[in-house]
Amino acid sequence: MVRVPCSYSGYNVVFKVHEHSRNPDYFAVVVLYVDGTYDVTAVELFQQDCQEWKALRRAFGAMFDYSNPPRGEIYLRFQVSGSAGIYWVQSRNAISSDWTAGATYDTMVQLN
Question: Which CATH superfamily is domain 14-97 in?
Fold first, then answer.
């Protein structure tokens, strides 16, 4: 399967909290503005209490979800696959502790 390259020149990758994330025990994000021929293949959040990265479940497409997310800021990283191989990219910004459904959070990362 050939991926059609997307062009989001000048845009940072953004996490959008999915509209179904209205319950504090359910957290879902959609990854937006992935430039070029990259595919986002996984998303993880950092669990502060055990100092480990925990995988979000790929619900569908570019949407990833997690039950019982940690309270406080949420630090995410995402795995990309492309011509340069497979590697992890960590967001430079955390999702705020008072996240709301529909809000977007800039990763301060560009893929190009």
Answer: Expansin, cellulose-binding-like domain (2.60.40.760)
